[in-house]
Amino acid sequence: MTDHGIALPAFRLHVVPAVVALASPTWQREVWLDRDRFEDLGYTVHVLFDDFCDADDPQRSLGYSLRTEEEVELMARLGAAYGTVQAAVGAGAPGEAYLDSPDWPAVVAAAARLAQVMVANDLAALQHLHEAGHRWPPGTGIAPHEAEDRDAASRSGRGPGSCDR
Questions:
Q1: Nearest 5°: CA angle at 107, between 104 and 110?
Q2: Measured between alpha carbons, how far is 30 from 111 in angstroms, rounded to an integer?
Q3: pLDDT tens, residue by residue, 30-83
Q4: If DSSP codes are grouped into helix, strand and coil, which group holds residue 62?
Q5: What average pLDDT score do residues 87-115 get?
Q6: Contact 105, 80 (CB under 8 A)
Q7: Cα separation of 32 and 45, whole Å?
Q8: Coil, strand, or helix at residue 112?
Q9: CA nearest to 79, candidates 122, 50, 101, 99
């Protein structure tokens, strides 16, 4: 797997939650169908098809909001599954019509697989940054867990890695 990196990480910060929302029928019913909430199916569709990616042609998003060819392929599958539902219920149909479509489970399944891959890829990228010496917060030279370990060891009089038996 080649990780092409992300030129527009802020885009990905919108894409990943949108994919996760499409993977969660409970979220869809509790949030999208609640008129008092901002997020709905339309918002999610705009994120994935118009604003931060193009699920109909995701290859163009490789290296911008998508990390790998696998993500591109899975996003295309998600776009196709959504397109099937949209063709069946009509573009102007309310969100509930989409969720009630017999083809909607294919959208949820495609989104679930994509969400799994995207999160795993982000965790792998984070691990590579850590292994390359990047620490948080910037400028400290240490990771937060390393600072906590160091502080706990100094309070107990033990060095890191020592244990009482």
A1: 150
A2: 18
A3: 999 998 888 999 999 999 999 999 999 999 999 999 999 999 999 999 999 999
A4: strand
A5: 97
A6: no
A7: 12
A8: helix
A9: 50
CA separation (Å) from 154 to 12, 141, 162? 40, 18, 12
For helices 69-89 and 104-131, what crossing angle results, to 10°? 160
Rounded Cα–Cα distance for residues 15 and 3 (Å)? 17
What is the helix (H) or strand (E) element at residue 113, kind and residue range? helix 104-131
Distance CA 1, CA 68 (A): 7
What gap in Å lies between CA 26 and CA 79, rounded to an integer?
21
**Chain Cα centroid distance, residue 36:** 24
Kindly report the backbone phi and psi dihedral angles of residue 102, in degrees, each rounded to the nearest multiple of 5, phi listed first. -65, -15
Structure tokens at 165: 């038996």
**The pair of three-digit structure tokens given for residue 25, joined into one six-digit string:** 């029928």
Locate 114 and state its tokens.
Answer: 């994509």
